[in-house]
Amino acid sequence: MDTGSDERGAATLGSRAPAFIKASRPLHLSWQVGVFVVGLAVVAAGVVMLPLPGPGWLVIFGGMAIWATEFVWAQLVLRWTKRKVTEAAQKALDPKVRRRNIILTAVGVVIAAVLVGGYVWRFGFVLPWNITS
Question: What's the start-to-end Cα distance of the chain, in Å?
C-alpha cells in the first residue's frame, strides 16, 4: 500500500510512516490515529494561544505539519499555505505596496495619538474605569 513513493522526495503525497508500519493494516491505522491525536493536540494548543500570549499561528502550522506526515489533505493545505505566504511576502516587498503600508501605518498612528491626546486633555491621566464625569 505505497501511496506516494516516487523519486521526487518532498513532492510526494501520502503516508511517511516507516515501511514496517505500513505493512500491517492495524498497525498503520493505529499510527494514523496517533498522528491525528498528536496533531490535534498541537493545533488545539495553537488555537488557545491565538488570544493568549504565545506563537499561536506558528503552533497551528506545526500541528498541520505533524498531520502532513500522514494525511494527504494536510499536505495539500500546507502546500497551498506556503504558496500564499510566499506570494504575500513577494507582494509586501513591492516598493509601491511598502510605501502604501507605511503611509497607512503613519495615518493610523496619528489617529491613535489624536484620540489618546483628546482623552488625556479631557480627563487627564485617569483610567477609563475611574472616570466620574
Answer: 74
